[in-house]
């Protein structure tokens, strides 16, 4: 939102920031501003830190209807998507990746959280059978699936059950998709593995009680170095 641009610009020095017109602190749909912000990008993430606004429906619909790239929808992007006709997922030219936790997934499929807890793989397979997406369902074991393939990733630690851990995963995933976007589902599983392994490294250094999401983020470059050297 342009209302916080100066604050972000002065405090997030490593990030390139694009201004989107806003009202009351929430972005509003502006075709020209969105096209300018997304120009030249290879992958995008939607929803982290958004909050909720009816304008976000317009933004998501515009991107899905007018772009062709990997699009990761997370957090409030998922809550916004739950208010839209999900058939848009079968009409878009984007390669859509959804990364819900249990509650967010329950909203998407209009079921209770306990139903998801009791039958996560079955419900994930039903969803990807109906919609042309890759789905990553966060949990004790992370489930990643499309119509043809399902992966389980068990790396991680209970210290990652803290605010911002999902945002770290989204950042890792969007970064990887900028380089590896031929096999979207495998790349998504790789992101979940890197995120979980980084969390385990953070636990070794900080302990699972005191660690925060930024501790996991700090380990990502070390994990990537280790995995690259091991090939």
Write the layout of secondary structure elements.
Elements: H1 5-11, E1 22-23, E2 26-27, H2 31-38, E3 44-46, H3 55-66, E4 70-73, H4 76-81, E5 95-98, H5 102-109, H6 113-118, H7 120-130, E6 134-137, E7 142-145, E8 150-153, H8 165-177, H9 184-206, H10 213-230
Parallel strand pairs: 3-4, 4-5, 5-6
Antiparallel strand pairs: 1-2, 6-7, 7-8
Helix pairs in contact: 8-9, 8-10, 9-10
Explain what the structure shows.
By secondary structure, the chain is an alpha/beta fold. It has 10 helices and 8 strands. The protein has helices at residues 5-11, 31-38, 55-66, 76-81, 102-109, 113-118, 120-130, 165-177, 184-206, 213-230, and strands at residues 22-23, 26-27, 44-46, 70-73, 95-98, 134-137, 142-145, 150-153. The strands form 2 sheets. Strands 3-4-5-6-7-8 form a 6-stranded mixed β-sheet, with helices on both faces. Strand 4, helix 4 (76-81) and strand 5 (95-98) form a beta-alpha-beta unit. It starts with a helix and ends with a helix. 35% of the residues are buried. The model has no long low-confidence stretch (mean pLDDT 96).
